[in-house]
Amino acid sequence: MINYVHHAGHTLTWEEHSTGTRSIIFIHGYSANRAIWSHELAYLSHLGRCVTLDLPGHYPAVMPPTCRALSQAEVLDLELRALEAIVGDQPCTLIGHSTGGLVALAAAARLPTQVERVVALAPVVWGPLTGALGFYQRLLPLPGGYMLYWLHYRLTQLSLRFIQYGIASAYSGNMRAYMENPVAAAAVRRWHPIYAHSQLRNLATLLLTLRTCDIRAEIGQIACPVLIIAGERDPVVPSLQAHWLAQHLPKAHLHILPGIGHLPQWEAAATVEGLLRGYVGDCRL
C-alpha cells in the first residue's frame, strides 16, 4: 500500500514492505522509483521494517503543477519531512543510491538521533553531474533544450528496449556486461511501467537542482557509520567524490568497485549483496 506525505503543495510517497522494531529506508536516485529495490528487499526484508521512499515528483509522487525550480534546501526539507513521518523519533538505517545517497547523507547530518547508519551507493555529494546527465543539465536551460530533453526521455518511457540501452550507455561501467546482466534486466522490467507514468517536467526540475547541489558543508555533522560503495568507472558521479567523502567522515567504510559504473547494486550485485548483508545485518534490526 502506498502512503502519502503532503507538504508545500507536494505529495511524497512511500511503501512499507516488512515489519520490525527498526526501519531500513531505501531512497532511489534521479528518474528512478521504488521498484528498483526489489532485489535488495528480497535479501534484507527479514532484518527489519523495510520502507521505500520516492524522490519529489517521481511518480506516484506529485509536484505542484507550476513548480519549475527546486532548491537543494527544498528537496531536502521535503525528504526529511517524509523520513520523520515514517520513523518519528525511532532509529533507522538509510540506503540511498545517487541522489538518494545525497538525501541519506544530509539526513544523517540533520537527524542524528534517528539515523544510526547510512549506506551510500554512488552518492552525489556535489554537482554538476558528468557524462550524459551532465549534458542534459547543460542542455535544459538553453532555448529549445527542454524539448530535446523531453523527446529523448519520452522515447525511454515508450520503449523498454530503448531504456535498457540508454541506461547501459549512460550509467554502466561496461556496456556489454550490463546488457547481459540478469539482475539489471529484471530490475528495469519492474521499474519501467512506473517510470512510464512520470511527468518529465518534474524529472527535469530535479536534474537542474542537482547541477548546483553541494552537501560538503554538512558532512562534518555526520557521526554515524557510513558504508560508501562506488564504481571506479562511474560516468555520472566520479569516484573522487566517494574518496572525498571517505576522507571527511570519521566512521566511513569505502569500497570502490573496479570496472563498475553508476549502478553498483546491479553491475556488481553479488558483491554489493555481501556488503549490505554484513553491514546492515551487523546490527540486527
Automatic annotation (TrEMBL):
The UniProt entry, under Pfam families, shows: Abhydrolase_6
Q: Which domain of life is it from?
A: Bacteria
Return the Gene3D superfamilies for the record.
alpha/beta hydrolase
- Domain named AB hydrolase-1: which ranges? 24-272
Q: Which PANTHER family match?
A: MONOACYLGLYCEROL LIPASE
**Name of the protein in its database record:** AB hydrolase-1 domain-containing protein
Please give the organism: Candidatus Viridilinea mediisalina
